[in-house]
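Tutorial, part two.
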Amino acid sequence: MKLVNAIIKPFKLDDVREAISEIGVEGLTVSEVKGFGRQKGHTELYRGAEYQVDFLPKVKLEIAVNDDVVERLVEAICKAAHTGKIGDGKIFVYELSQVVRIRTGELDSEAI
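Running the prediction step on this input gives:
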């Protein structure tokens, strides 16, 4: 089992959700986060004053899947989140040692 974390642009969330639904992935967790990478933030004008915004809004997706789905999931996220511009995001894949569904006590693959 794997945990896939994807950091994407907020306006791409619906596209990504639709793409992963099409490959049969049913559950995900979404968090609104802020960060920066190569974008290094940007400058904004507010009431005539210019100021630097170092952290940009992003969306973090956490998706637990079986090993046989990981490649298709990563590909679907890449396609749906791609704009070709800096700041499209990153995908991280982690090994999961155990998953438990709290309501039923199901373990591992049955809990996903």
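Strands lie at 2-8, 29-35, 42-46, 49-53, 56-65, 89-95. In part three we will examine how such features are distributed along the chain.
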